[in-house]
Amino acid sequence: MTDYSKYKAVLVEKDNGVATVTLNRPSALNAVNNDMGADFDTLFRDLSNDEEIDAIVLTGAGRAFCAGGDITGFKSDNPRQLLDKLPRPYDFSRRPDYQSRAAYFPAIQKPIIAMLNGATAGLGLVHALFCDVRFAAEEATLTTAFSRIGLASEYGMGWILNRVVGHANALDLLLSARKLRGAEALRLGLVNQVHPKDKLAEATYAYAREMADLVSPRSARVIKRQLWELPYQSLHEALVTDSEEMLRANVSEDFNEGKRAFMEKRAPNFTGR
Description:
By secondary structure, this protein is of the alpha/beta class. Helices cover 41% and strands 15% of the residues.
C-alpha cells in the first residue's frame, strides 16, 4: 500500500475509491514551487498505479486553487537551468507528449477532476486544463496571466487552451490575460460545471463517487486514453483504434460483470480487468 503521508507540499486522502489531492500552500495561494513540483512528479505516478483508486479530485487549500508558479520559489541563479531540469520522457513505450513537466495528467490512468475552488492562474490553469473534467465555483477567477507579467504562453497552455475553447477564444484569453469568472468559463467550455462555492465540493464528490461506484475502471482507463490520443489521429486511425479496443473490451472481466449487473438490476462490482 502506497504511503501518501510522505508528500509534504500536497495532501492526499482516499475515501471509497476517490483520492483527493490538495495543493497545500494556502498562504501563497497554492503557487507551485520546487517542493510541490517534485511531489507532483512522483505522486501522480503512485496514484495512477493504485488499484484502490478509481477517480482523483485535484483542488487547493484555502481560498485558491493555484495562483500559478511561485516566481520566488523556483530557486536558481541562472534561469536557463530551468530548461535543463525539465523532465525528459521516461517511458519510451508511451507517447512523449504527455510526459512533460506540466502535461502528464493525460497519461495518468485514472480520471482527474479539477475542483476549482478559487483563483486559478498561469501554471495553475495549465494543470486544470490537462485534467479530464473541471468543476468551478461561481466566484472562482481564471486567468492565463502570462502576458501581464512579461511571459510567453508556457507549459503547453496554448496547445491545450486552443483545443478546449477554440482558436479565437484561446487568443483572447492569452493575449489579454483578463480574468473571467465561473459563468463565462462555463459558456466558453473552459469548465464543465459551475456551482456556488458552498455547494462545489458536494457536487464534485457526487460526480466522483458515482464514477467510482458505477463506471468500469478498465473502461475509464481506455476511454481516457482514446480521447487524449485524438489530436494525433486521423478519423481512420481513430476508427481502427476504437475497433481494436471494442474487441478487447468484449472479452474483459468488466464487460462480463457489467452484463450480469445489468440483467440482475444491481450495481456492478468491477475489478478493472
